[in-house]
């Protein structure tokens, strides 16, 4: 009996979504060698942003660290409204388009595309793009086969993101139940996570951050203070300066957070999700300072993981500009001044400048996630 080798066996391994996409791309090319690129973009419903996420291609992807408003792209909106894929068998018909992504594809030599919406339980969360360097290759027969691959990609991504959201939701619920009077609101976490993404995008070229890194730091940023679950309310919510004994207890929350994350990952069977070490670093090191005066380990400079340095700046900026029972909200200019004052001491100067270079984006985030009387 002839031996058959499972061409998709790599999907069973503990590997990243990007690696699994490459396996699917390789298998697709065995039947349709003209498929030179498969890419995925994710959609953020709160901000209407469509963001590049992962890709597999014969060459470097023409689009990276890119985002655009979905409402600005009529043809992609039509895909969602009609719940149907889109085929363009000659991209040259769009050569006069002013859209950045269209120009990038044409400049990279792609001549046709097939776009499939990712929808699960009627919830739209992004697109899968198939591109070819030839015209007129997306026949009905080809598209039927690509539909199966596209839906498989969507399920893989939805499964991982669902696992992460389960983890985040568990932590948020635990924080709410343990510290019901905690002054940090859900909108604080929404804002600071998006400031985190702004900084990471701005530093992407310097640190070679890919879209996966940027998306995961955005998803994991709200978990930075998980360890506060173990801090008593009398300390966590104290309006006055902490005593040395109280501050010693407070300083234990980063390591407590990392231990809790390891426990949650084990209990939920989530050790296979991507960028887990990033999550651990965010929890453990977000109170370290560039000059070595932070805690828990007194790390200095670049010895502090970059994801922790990014989250620190985003978190403190939103804390400064948010009202709390014990303080009024600072205006943005006051907060910008304080960040610059502490740049190089408490904060990484690159992270500070990366955030302050995007004041328009900061204000849009603040408008989108504005507090009200109910938090």
Summarize the structure.
This protein has 375 residues and is an alpha+beta fold. The protein is built from 15 helices and 6 strands. The protein has helices spanning 17-31, 74-82, 100-107, 140-178, 186-202, 204-207, 211-220, 233-236, 244-250, 253-268, 276-285, 306-320, 332-342, 349-356, 359-368, and strands at 35-44, 49-57, 67-69, 86-88, 112-120, 123-132.
Topology:
Layout: H1 17-31, E1 35-44, E2 49-57, E3 67-69, H2 74-82, E4 86-88, H3 100-107, E5 112-120, E6 123-132, H4 140-178, H5 186-202, H6 204-207, H7 211-220, H8 233-236, H9 244-250, H10 253-268, H11 276-285, H12 306-320, H13 332-342, H14 349-356, H15 359-368
Antiparallel strand pairs: 1-2, 1-6, 2-3, 4-5, 5-6
Helix pairs in contact: 1-4, 5-7, 5-12, 5-14, 5-15, 10-11, 11-12
Description of the molecule:
With 375 residues, the chain is an alpha+beta fold. The chain is built from 15 helices and 6 strands. It has a 6-stranded antiparallel sheet with strand order 3-2-1-6-5-4, sandwiched between helices. The radius of gyration is 23 Å and the shape is globular. The chain starts with 16 loop residues before the first helix and ends in a 7-residue tail after the last helix.
Helix-strand topology string: HEEEHEHEEHHHHHHHHHHHH
The mean pLDDT is: 89
Which sequence of strands runs across the widest sheet?
A: 3-2-1-6-5-4
The biggest beta sheet is recorded as:
6 strands, antiparallel
Compute the separation of the termini in Å.
Answer: 67 Å
Q: Roughly what fraction of the amino acids lie in strands?
A: 5-15%
How many strand segments? 6
Q: Judging from the principal axes of the Cα atoms, what is the shape?
A: globular
**Fraction in helix:** 40-55%
Structural class: alpha+beta
Q: Give Rg in angstroms.
A: 23 Å
The total of helices stands at: 15
Given as residue ranges, the uncertain stretches (5+ residues, pLDDT < 50) are none
